[in-house]
Amino acid sequence: MDQLKLTQSDRNFFELVSRATFTNPFSPERVEIDRRISGRNDGASWPSIMPQAVKEVSTRLRTLEETAPIKIKDFAHPDRTIIEHALLFDAFHKYAYELDAIIDQQLASPDKSIDVPFAPELLAGLRTAGLARDRARRYLELFYQIRRAFFFIDKNLLGRSPSMQKLRMNLWNNIFTHDILHYERYLWDKMEDFSTLLLGPTGCGKGTAAAAIGQSGYIPFDENKNCFAESFTRTFIPINLSEYPESLIESELFGHTKGSFTGAVSAHEGIFSLCSPHGSIFLDEIGDISTQIQIKLLRVLQERTFSPVGNHEKLRFSGRVIAATNQNIDSLRSEGKFRDDFYYRLCSDCIAVPSLHQRIKEDPAELEQLVNRTIASIAGDNTEFAPMVMDVIKSRLGKHYAWPGNVRELEQCVRSVIIKRDYDGRHCQTANPNRSTIDISDEPDAQQLLARYCATLYDKYGTLGEVARRTALDRRTVKKHIERHCKNAD
Ligand SMILES: Nc1ncnc2c1ncn2[C@@H]1O[C@H](COP(=O)(O)OP(=O)(O)OP(=O)(O)O)[C@@H](O)[C@H]1O
């Protein structure tokens, strides 16, 4: 049979679609391509262009398959690739809402395996077009990954200022690289070598950005069970390193065996062994750890193995590492507090998360958007609180307020105005709930330190059992430490 060729008009159109399929959806380039596909030249925003673009692609493809379903191999090169990409674009958008529903269901039931009812139809459609079974499955996996990335980057990180748009673009590239075609071909299961360092002031959203990366990783699809092999809610494991005294960090990271040190009454699994093969570990406050721990982490990143405290067995770690700090990393390096070798191994990708002050400077509307969102999360839909909050911000803080606590401070400000109808920003410099209450400046001895640590964990988790589990001490010892700490604090 003669190979099919697209008309010049179809080729031009589908070439654009092919480019759109693999271009970062948060980039200006992508918006321009979709604008051309949709035929809209009215300056409309991307969300309003997209439905039109999707419809145009579908209509053109349906016209091509008037007589029979499209078979990719019937087309001559280079039309073959162009048509394949257009079919992927079409399939992705056809099932986008269904994929979002799977994300919602997984968020509502984090440990459940969620059935994907449309998967057989989606896979059959791609196979009918001529994709091999493995490749069709890979695309289903990629579609789900793209949808999650979109969900977490777009919905959880509010703001349209240029620096937020840049952040979104950078996060997307961090997950899929700048060329998703290469990612799909060569890298989808090899991202472990790309570690990430997030930099930015306290409360600006580094943890939220890290979660977006960590929950958007590749997850295999199990065709026999018709569900994804793992819940994305379990693929991201955060740890705030500043919460742990030096003596316990190693055990929290790598685990320990029973009896490996005084008080280790049972074995404890560290976060490196809890992380799934396709998951990510988030090391928050990485600037706070000693050079000894940096050396141990460097070894994990280089050799991909680690050993629990008290055990020489080498365990493999194949997840990704994301780290963050609000400290000035260059100063830490020049002071010798942050090792260069560790820094270079950690920052395959260094992403700056903008301060709230910068964001508002670029786009003043961002302040009100964040206020509205915070109010909605506290009090649902209501129109009464926002004017009151904006009024207090304007009169008490003024237009040029620096927001030193960033978005976290803004959230605190909203709560304060709802309760007291006031906020003066005076306490925010020290108000950082993610920071440990442990202050080692007064050089406590090891017992006092442990007692404080138990008390801190007890404040956070509320039960002796949980503190015992985390410290690998028995409950009575934990209780004794907490009581001692409270007595000393009185
Ligand atoms: N762009 C944003 N849109 C909406 N909410 C945001 C945004 N950035 C941050 N937040 C919210 O601000 C709060 C603080 O964010 P987060 O914990 O991610 O900051 P952080 O930089 O990791 O802080 P720290 O340096 O103290 O660890 C969270 O409640 C988060 O949801």
Task: Give an overview in words.
The protein is α/β, with parallel strands linked by helices. Among the domains are: 156-354, Rossmann fold; 360-420; 440-489. It is 54% helix and 7% strand. The protein has 22 helices and nine strands. It has helices spanning 8-21, 28-38, 46-64, 79-94, 96-108, 119-128, 133-156, 162-176, 180-187, 206-214, 246-254, 271-274, 291-303, 329-334, 340-346, 356-362, 365-379, 385-397, 406-420, 446-461, 464-471, 475-489; strands at residues 196-199, 221-222, 227-228, 236-240, 280-284, 305-306, 315-316, 320-325, 349-352. The strands form three sheets. A five-stranded parallel β-sheet has the order 4-5-8-1-9. A two-stranded antiparallel sheet has the order 2-3. A two-stranded antiparallel ribbon has the order 6-7. Strand 2 (221-222) and strand 3 form a beta hairpin. 36% of the residues are buried. Mean pLDDT is 89; it is low at 429-442. The structure holds adenosine-5'-triphosphate. Residues 157-159, 200, 202-208, 284, 326, 370, 407-408, 411, 432, 434 line the site of adenosine-5'-triphosphate.
